[in-house]
Amino acid sequence: MDKVEGVVKELLSAMGYAEASVEQVEIGGQTVFSIKNLKDPRELIGQHGDTIHAIDILVKKIVEKRFDDAHRKAHEEGPFSSPSTGPEGSLRPSNGSGAERMFLVDIDEYRIRHIRDLQTKAKMMAERARSFQYDVELSPMTAYERLIIHTALQNEPHIKTESQGEGRSRRVVIKYSAE
């Protein structure tokens, strides 16, 4: 994960934010690289988090590209070998777990607060489903937000979750289960 932190710092410096620092935090089973010490964090968060989302994607692409290039160089077997034809494939992580890509880039805990809010909402709605013994349908969410809800409730007793609907109207339904 030191590679990721290095890429984030390098990108921030290129964008003119060399004074920023990066802090690594674990939340919801993910490593979050939180950018701190910005004069105006709103500049990099953007409207509705659009800019930080773009930075997150950019960092992931840079890490992926650098990892793939390093992987290809380390596993070349000869002048006629192709990097994508090996038994591991071209995207195999160095430790086999995919941990190098399981991260999130955040600014001043903007995304962390969103994750915590979703987890709190999920727990409240699960309690409502358990208390009244009926299904609770949440509002439409992105795939990532639905994943947070499913993960937050996976170990809750007497609660099952499933996604229903299609496209932008896909939502999580929290179901009471007597089992």
How do the helices and strands line up, and which of them pair or pack?
Blueprint: H1 2-14, E1 21-27, E2 30-36, H2 42-45, H3 50-74, E3 103-107, H4 110-132, E4 136-137, H5 143-153, E5 159-164, E6 171-176
How do you describe this structure in short?
The chain has helices at 2-14, 42-45, 50-74, 110-132, 143-153, and strands spanning 21-27, 30-36, 103-107, 136-137, 159-164, 171-176. It has 179 residues and is of the alpha+beta class.
* Oligomer status: single chain
Strand content: 15-25%
CATH class of the largest domain: Alpha Beta
Mean pLDDT over the full residue set = 84
Q: By helix and strand content, what is the structural category?
A: alpha+beta
Quote the distance from N terminus to C terminus: 40 Å
Give the ordered list of helices and strands.
Answer: HEEHHEHEHEE
* CATH structural architecture of the largest domain: 2-Layer Sandwich
Number of strands: 6
- Into which percent range does the helicity of residues fall? 40-55%
**Strand count, sense and closure of the main sheet?**
3 strands, mixed
Total helical segments:
5
Rg from alpha-carbon coordinates = 20 Å
Structural domain count? 2
